[in-house]
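Tokens for Transcription elongation factor GreA. Go.
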Amino acid sequence: MSVAFRRESDEEHLEPKFELPIPPGPNLVTARGLELIEAQGAALEARLSEPLSDEERKKVLRDARYWRSRAATAQLAPVPSGDEVAVGTRVTYARDGVEKTVEIVGHDESEPAAGRVGFTAPLVRAMLGAEVGEEVEGPGGMVEIVAIEVA
């Protein structure tokens, strides 16, 4: 029989399932971030005890592996002094006369729309270690650090 008439399995046409990518570098977290990671892991573990379809179980297991890894590698960032930009600080900066405030957090708790930016973001990397009044070269130009407070 010609292979043209052979029925291919449905599996051959499915997108391959990959593991969730683990961000490179240290997994620095704030106390809030550590709580979020642990809560996410606990929620997924609870879902695994429920009856799930095979496909759903695979998805939940994949997510659980990611969060287990993140919990195992989490490093609680030192409590910042507020003297310089660091993980766990709220920073007000000015660019072109416009002030913005962001809270610097770990990768997994980053929510740019809520003003929480991960320490790996290019702008934050440029600001880390800077003090009030300092100007740093960020993506898109110079930014001035206006205020720093412990979040």
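Residues 24-76 form one domain.
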